Amino acid sequence: MQYQQPLRGPDVIDGLSIWYLKLFGFWKIINDFRTTGKRNLFFKFEFIMSILISFPYIACQFSSYLTIDVDIQKATLINFYCLPAVTMCSRILVFWFHADSQCRLFNLIKKDFLCIPENKKAETRKIYRRVSKSCNMMCMFAFVLDLSVVFTTVGIPGIPVDYILYHTGSMFDVTTGRKKILCAWYPLPMAEYPYYEIIFVYEMMCVLLGGIYLPIYASLFYQVAVALHAQFLVLGYHVSTLKINPNIKQKKKNMSSGITEDLYKILLDHQKLLSYADELRSVYNPLVTINLGGAIGILIVSVFQSHMGETRDIVFVLKSILYAASIMIELLMFCYSSSLIQAASSDLHFAIYSSDWYKADTKFRNTAQMMMVRAKKGVNLTAIRMYPVNLETLMSIFQFAYSTSALMSGMLEE
């Protein structure tokens, strides 16, 4: 990769909160990679430890289908607790293998990313602050929900070991044996000392790891996407305010030459934004695909358990709601940011009409027409390479999850 300048706090767009990046060492990871092209020791340690902790849990979860009795109710619980670990690993792997692109995409959070005239910077700061405020709130919700899941899951373990080893059907019919944090089978005598204690500590580490890294990576990816949205908004504002000063007593050709030069610069900025948008879509595609799949699975399980009448345990209901809410907020972050990018990028098509294009020369009109053609389609994130992701996708996921869970419940009742 081409080495770049490190990011500094004053470089970040107005109002955007990056405290979590600095607190957990990601700010240094990003800057070290930008300046040296190498992953620093903390990044390597964090990646290795995350995989070493997560992989045994995921492997044991899926291998349990071959070693213990499983019906549809137990299978849904196994997937319910396993899918967040899979999504967390997918985010870590995407960031590791696309570190060069991801660190380059962080140029989008710079407030001088676009060439904006000095007289318009006051208004652009307002745009940045407005976007940053909503972005910070979404990220904070993600952190709060994920930490709530950690506290309830670790603080109130509710999965009977005897249910995992010997029973099927309703988990709440099993009242014997000790209880653990997650619904995972391990090739160990799980109910005996000291294996039970070791497993308990290990699962607590898994939950703590997920509770910290899931919102960090979700916020990290979300902030970059929202920053792209903010840059499109600023560029649209810049285009819409291209005006010819009627007080200047000059020939029409000279009057419009100034805004024509400005439009050339805007066209270059637009081309740069489209380049970054293509790179962002390419990097995020596997991430969005896996997270959409994981979110669908967790929502199906949540609704399915409600259909099966498992709401008599208030603790299980609380955990299910928090799990589903944490996944939904992270799913919303991808779908909502994609919709924002699409709206802001396509609005450039209309922003040109607010300029004085009808007063300008032919060069301005031709350049504006070229930009309108490029902006007409808009930009958004995709899943499975070609499937567009937006708020309509979110509604479709909710409908599919409910329909599937209702179908599964009906099949089980029959």
General description of the model:
This protein is mainly α. The protein contains twelve helices and four strands, in the order H-H-H-H-H-H-E-H-E-H-H-H-H-E-E-H. Strand 3 and strand 4 form a beta hairpin. Helix 4 crosses helix 8, helix 9 packs antiparallel against helix 10 and helix 10 packs antiparallel against helix 11. The N and C termini lie far apart (59 Å). About 1% of the residues have low confidence.
Write the layout of secondary structure elements.
Layout: H1 19-23, H2 26-36, H3 41-63, H4 72-97, H5 99-105, H6 121-155, E1 159-160, H7 161-166, E2 179-180, H8 195-240, H9 252-307, H10 314-351, H11 362-375, E3 382-383, E4 387-388, H12 391-413
Helix pairs in contact: 2-5, 3-4, 3-8, 4-8, 4-9, 6-8, 6-10, 8-9, 8-10, 9-10, 9-11, 9-12, 10-11, 10-12
Model regions low in confidence, pLDDT < 50 over at least 5 residues: 249-253
Helicity range of the residues?
A: over 70%
Provide the gyration radius in Å. 25 Å
**Approximate shape:** elongated
What's the order of the H and E elements? HHHHHHEHEHHHHEEH
* Major pleated sheet: 2 strands, antiparallel
Number of helices: 12
Distance from first to last alpha carbon:
59 Å
Q: What oligomeric state do the depicted chains represent?
A: single chain
Instruction: Give the helix/strand class.
Output: mainly alpha
